[in-house]
Structure formats: C-alpha cells, structure tokens
Specification:
CATH superfamily: P-loop containing nucleotide triphosphate hydrolases
Number of strands: 10
Distance between the termini: 40 Å
Shape: globular
Number of helices: 10
Number of domains: 1
Strand content: 25-35%
Radius of gyration: 18 Å
Order of helices and strands: EEEHEEHEHHHEHEHEEHHH
Largest sheet: 6 strands, mixed
Structural class: alpha/beta
C-alpha cells in the first residue's frame, strides 16, 4: 500500500509544482495518473521514489520515504522508465536482469533461476541472451519490465509505458500490465491504455488532484477532460459518434 498525505514540492521557492497531494493506493490496485504536460505527474513519481524531497509524507508498505530509508524504499518500488534505453545499460537482457539481483547480494544460482522464472512468466524467454541494441522498442520495454519484476517490488511505477510503440507491441505491454499482481501506478497520455489497464484514475492539473474516481467515470467525462487540456479516449469518442 502507498499512502501520500499533504505532499507539496517546489523546484523554485514560492512556485510549487505539487500542491497538497493526498491519496492512498491499495494492494494490487492499478491507478492511472493523467494530466496535461506540466501537470506534475512525473514529479510526483520522483518524490515517491525519494529522488526529490517534498513536504508532507509518502509511506510505502508502512515505511516512510526519507533519506534514511531510501535503500528499503527502492526495494519496495520498481520504476519502469519511459525511455528503456535509460534503463537497459548492460549488453544483454540477461546481463541487465542479473546486475540488480547480484548487487542485492542474491546468490548467482538463485538469481539465474529468478531471471528464467520472470522471463517465462512474461513469455519473453527468447530475449534472454539477445543484445539490447538489437531488439525492438516493444521488446526492450518488455525487457525493462522484466528487469524490474525480477527485483520483486511490491509496487510498480510506470512512466508512459506505451509511448512510441507500434500497435502490436502496445497491446503486448497492455496485456502484461493487466496480468501483474503488484500495485501499479501509471502515468500516460494514452488514455485508451489507461482505460484498458486501470480501474481508478487520478486527474492532476497544476499540481493539484482535480478528481479521483473510477476510470470509466473520469475518462467518459468530455467536459472534465477538455477543461484540463485532454480529449476523450478514442473508444469513447467513437461511441459518441454513433449515438
């Protein structure tokens, strides 16, 4: 579970980017964070990870995010970056997955078994010994997710997981997100993907939570979305055209 209370953050004094943010994510919940560019979504994720230090509180599975708990927090939180090239830095997928596990002090044999298990679960065992610079964007995104899952985090933070993917790879990522058991918090401008994967949506604008509700309730509300510089998901737009 993640509990965020009265979170405020500013890069510059007297100009807060996050303003009194409060919400709770329950175990296994999948939440979409939506909002226009500059709304504060990515900053919120960075504060949750302890990369930025705001006022208020962030608690992950009972552990408050502080400078003294960062090592523990980062074992609980897995972060899938928007740009997989920034995450996959070893020669092969196998090397990347092993790197974090071995750094956590896990025995090589146990780490090898964990790598194989995660790749099998995601149906991408064929990527194990592939070079990262020779796999497609969608495959690299899947490998990045596998690398994070191998660390067994209780919460996954995902930043624009379907950006710049072709339809086939986008669908593969959506199906993977839906199959995961961890608590998932996803930022995206792909509102159709959010609708496909998230049961709950939190709309943020100018650093404040505007609305927190079910995905269908918020993503069907044309007036609400347009008031905050977004458009209806394509599936709802087409539905309205046929009414």
């Amino acid at each position: 579970m993640i509990e965020i209370r009265n979170l405020t953050f500013a890069y510059e004094k007297d100009n807060p980017v996050l303003k009194d943010i409060s919400f709770t994510a329950q175990d296994g919940e999948c939440i979409g964070l939506i909002g226009a560019n500059g709304a504060g979504k990515s900053t919120l994720m960075k504060v949750m990870l302890g990369l930025l230090d705001g006022s208020g509180s962030v608690i992950v599975d009972g552990t408050p995010v502080t400078q003294n708990t960062l090592a523990e927090i980062r074992r609980k939180l897995g972060f899938v970056l928007q740009n997989s090239d920034s995450q996959m830095f070893m020669p092969t997928v196998h090397d990347d997955m092993m790197f974090g596990l071995l750094n956590y002090g896990i025995r090589r044999e146990e780490a090898e078994n964990k790598v194989s298990e995660v790749l099998d679960t995601l149906h991408i065992s064929y990527l194990k010994d592939r070079y990262n610079h020779r796999i497609s964007g969608g495959e690299k995104r899947m490998a990045a997710i596998a690398t994070v899952l191998a660390m067994e985090p209780s919460v996954l933070l995902m930043d624009e997981p379907t950006s710049a993917l072709d339809p086939k790879n986008r669908r593969m990522i959506i199906n993977t997100i839906r199959s995961l058991k961890q608590t998932r918090i996803i930022t995206s401008h792909d509102l159709d993907m959010i609708l496909d994967t998230c049961s709950r949506v939190i709309l943020i604008d100018e650093g404040r939570i505007i609305k927190d509700g079910t995905a269908e309730e918020i993503l069907k509300d044309r007036e609400l979305l347009e008031a905050h510089s977004m458009e209806l998901p394509l599936s709802f737009s087409r539905m309205n055209e046929h009414l």
